[in-house]
Amino acid sequence: MGAFAELYEDLHGALGPQAWWPAESRFEVLVGAVLTQNAAWRNVEQAITRLRDAALFAPEAILAAPVARVAECIRPSGYYNIKTQRLRAACEAWLALGGEQGMAAMPTLALRNALLAVHGLGPESVDDVLLYGFERPVFVIDAYTRRIFSRIGVVDPRAGYDTLQQQFQADLPVDAQQFNEYHALIVQLGKSFCRPRQPRCGDCPLLSRCAHGRAEMNQRS
Prior knowledge:
It contains 13 helices and no strands. The protein is mostly helical. The protein folds into 2 domains: 3-18 and 140-220, Endonuclease Iii, domain 2, CATH 1.10.1670.10; 26-134, Endonuclease III, domain 1 (Orthogonal Bundle), CATH 1.10.340.30. Helix 2 (26-35) crosses helix 3 (41-53), helix 2 (26-35) runs antiparallel to helix 9 and helix 8 (108-116) packs across helix 9.
């Protein structure tokens, strides 16, 4: 068992199952992936609720509505004018690719490349959609992942997205459910313990494996 697999076992044992992503449909995962960029999830939930309340929670409805109306609905997510354009582009792609059924029938690499071609969708957003929306075994790399695993000492924080993704996927079973759970555990650890500033190293379940954490504790003692 490699380092990434061992760390998964440690995290799962310490934090338990997370049952994440919190979405009701594949389209909601796509919308959430656009709106969560530089936003807290609670604000994304507010924006999604406002879209639903305005009867705009469908790709056709979003594209038919005045741009200003959509922007006002998603205002809680921040950067709402930019995100409105990105959301419209994502909705256009959703329809062009055949909607949920058409996208579900596409091979993973083809679907990933098609979504990466959409304005405003980067690798992290696309892989969120693939993993959480379409149950494809692609590992999501985000800021939590970089911070936690560079502090532990098993990744280079300067490495590119694809390089880090390949490191994880090479060491883990090809299992979308496990990738889903692992990423959710990483997010929970990053929020609760491995913070950007003032990390709670003394309480962290990965302290014994973390070079940064041990150094922090030595400085405090």
